[in-house]
Design brief:
GO terms for molecular function: carboxylic ester hydrolase activity. One of its GO terms (cellular component) is extracellular region. The relative contact order is 0.13. The two termini are 28 Å apart. Helix content is 34%, strand content 18%. The protein is α/β, with parallel strands linked by helices and 299 residues long. It has a single domain, classed as Alpha/Beta hydrolase fold, catalytic domain (Rossmann fold, 3-Layer(aba) Sandwich), CATH 3.40.50.1820. The N terminus is likely disordered. A ten-stranded mixed beta sheet has the order 1-2-4-3-5-6-7-10-9-8, with helices on both faces.
């Protein structure tokens, strides 16, 4: 009984922490290049002396504040406990989707959404003495598409990524899509009709940052088998891309991990690339905050 009451007390503190948490608007963080992106942040009551930074990217039709509301129950208590700063940007255009199709966004320092998002990260690093070795990115749906893309365009900024229900970096750009939203994009990528070898995907990514020879971020990517908006073949295409970029090969499936019906698809020793297939789950896979921050190496 005492142990049960103790757990209930902790749960109450966590719930209160998330409920009281608020975002701060940040203006003048850098050039927006006409993208119209805006920036909000969550700063914990006691930020670490050199805090980790997590960029959290909303789905289409969403907003930074909306995604904060969706994720704060798991992310805020963890951020509070380790003193990490969370960035919740917003995209107001193309059905509130991130631009993952344009050449500007698919090019390092190309003046697109990717560059503006990195300028938000730089603002936190400079203003709060953030740790440049502990910068991470996550997102859902369009946010996962951008997570894949920004990890390829700015691999030297992010140490690791975890995202939900997305598609490979550069897919929409490669097929000449005129938009990034369900109403503007060529549907071939979302429908799982764009199939490439790992080498072909990696070549697309290498062209995003010509001359880059360093490491790419560790990647954890989640997808539901019943997703009817961004179909499950996109999981395999992402894994082909990142296994080639990271130099990892498939090792094993771990069933019912981290919960029943989820399969942890392990590459190498499981520290640099994992794909998660969620049986019967639609769009999008629910955010797993504990696993995200464990993947980032912050827990």
């Amino acid at each position: 009984m005492v142990r049960f009451l103790g757990r209930m007390a902790v749960a109450g503190v966590v719930t209160a922490s998330a409920a009281l948490a608020q975002l701060q608007q940040v203006n003048n963080f850098g050039d927006t290049f006409g993208t119209q992106l805006t920036m909000e942040i969550y700063v914990p009551p006691n930020p670490a002396p050199s805090p980790a930074v997590v960029l959290a990217l909303h789905p289409c039709g969403g907003s930074g504040s909306g995604y904060f509301g969706q994720t704060s129950g798991s992310y805020v208590p963890i951020a509070d406990s380790i003193g990490a700063i969370l960035i919740y940007p917003s995209s107001p255009k193309d059905f509130n989707c991130w631009d993952v199709h344009s050449s500007q966004s698919n090019t390092h320092d190309g003046g697109g959404d990717t560059q503006v998002l990195v300028s938000m990260v730089d603002y936190i690093l400079n203003t709060y003495n953030g740790d440049p070795a502990k910068v991470f990115v996550t997102g859902s749906s369009s946010g996962c598409m951008m997570t894949n893309l920004i990890s390829g365009v700015y691999p030297d900024v992010f140490a690791a990524a975890s995202c939900y229900s997305g598609m490979p970096a550069g897919c929409l750009n490669a097929i000449g899509s005129s938009g990034s939203s369900p109403i503007s994009a060529d549907p071939a990528c979302a429908n799982g009709q764009v199939n490439k070898s790992g080498e072909e995907w990696a070549e697309l990514v290498h062209k995003m940052y010509p001359g880059y020879t360093g490491d790419y971020p560790r990647m954890l990517t989640w997808h539901g088998t019943a997703d009817n908006l961004i179909l499950i073949p996109n999981l395999d295409e992402q894994l082909k891309m990142w296994s080639t970029l990271l130099g990892e090969t498939f090792t094993e499936d771990r069933l019912n991990t981290p919960e029943a019906g989820y399969t942890w698809k392990v590459y190498g020793d499981g520290t640099r690339l994992v794909g998660v297939s969620a049986q019967g789950v639609g769009h999008t896979v629910p955010v797993h905050g504990q696993q995200d921050f464990e993947w980032f190496g912050l827990l």
